[in-house]
Structures are given as structure tokens and as C-alpha cells.
Amino acid sequence: MQLKKLMMPIIVGVFIITTSSAVLANEAVEIVKKLYSVADGKNYDAEFMDKLIASDFKDHNRDHVVEGVSDRDATIGFYSQLAQGFPDELHKLLMLEPVGEDKALLYWEWSGTNTGSFFDIPPSGNKVKINGIEIFRVKDGQIVDMWHVEQLDKLNKQLQGVKHP
Q: Which of 7, 73, 74, 139 has the smallest CB count inside 10 Å?
């Protein structure tokens, strides 16, 4: 009888911890869905992106660091450049899964037609398609961390008109 009385609070505690972890991870999935619902060219919303990405956001794979440009500003600027350079761009979320308590894992396919300038590259009119994978960490309803890998070499070749298998 005494053992049953002791076990009930433990079982309830484990249930609460497990349930709250799943809720947090699912929040990360929902935030990532929101990000990509407004990141594409025809839906791009700079104000929404500004609210969704935390002020202390960290891009753990940022290759091109520019003095005085934060990871947050560089990331928001990158999504803006994609929308400008590829107005018909579309991210297909092929796999989106919760990871741990506060992360989401995303595997995507991105496609578009380069009809606008993209950074310093003039429009080529070329259709492009690449894949990538990202992990996002969410805190208080905002994206605070991102790890990512995408087929940038393939994108560059497609912009130049080089056929890629």
C-alpha cells in the first residue's frame, strides 16, 4: 500500500515531463511551418520574419561573416534575397520532425526561377532545384538557433546554366 502511494507521484511526474517535452518539440515544428509559410517569394513578409527570428539568433553554419552584420540580420537578408531573386520560389517540406524538447529537423526541396537579381547576380531566367536539411531550436515562440546544409554548389551551377544530374 505504501509503495503504491509513493509510485503515483513519480508516474504523474514522468507523464508531465514527457508530455511537456512533446509539446515544446511540437511548438518547434509549428514555428518552422510558419517560417516557411512566409519565406517563399510570393508570400515573403519581412515583418513576420523579424518577429519570428530572435534577436540573439545564432546560425551555427554561417560561412560568410560580414563585420557588423548579425547572424539574425544575415539570415533575414538571405530569405529576402531568395524572395527577390526567385519570386516563384517554393520550399517543399519533405520531412519535418520534432527533435528533443525544443528542436525541429527539416528536410526540404527548394525550387524557383531566377527572374530577379539575387545578391549581385543578375537574373538568368534559369530554373533551379536543390535540397537541404536544417535543425532549428525554438525558445519562447522564436527561432534562436539554426544548423543547416544545402546544395549550394548545385544551385550555383544551375544559375550558370550548367546541367546537373
A: 7
Q: Which residues lie closer than 8 Å to 97 by C-beta, 6 or more apart? A: 29, 104, 105
Beta strand pairing call for 53-59 and 142-150: parallel
CA distance 29 to 60: 19
Domains in the chain with CATH codes: 2-159 (3.10.450.50)
Contact 40, 89 (CB under 8 A): yes
User: Among candidates 129, 96, 117, which has minimal Cα distance to 25?
Assistant: 96
Q: Which residue has the higher pLDDT, 64 or 100?
A: 100
pTM for this predicted structure: 0.81
d(CA 93, CA 39): 12
Look up residue 48 and give its three cell numbers.
513576420
Q: Indicate the SS3 state at residue 147.
A: strand
The answer, yes or no, to whether residue 18 has pLDDT greater than 50, is no
- DSSP helix/strand/coil, 162: coil
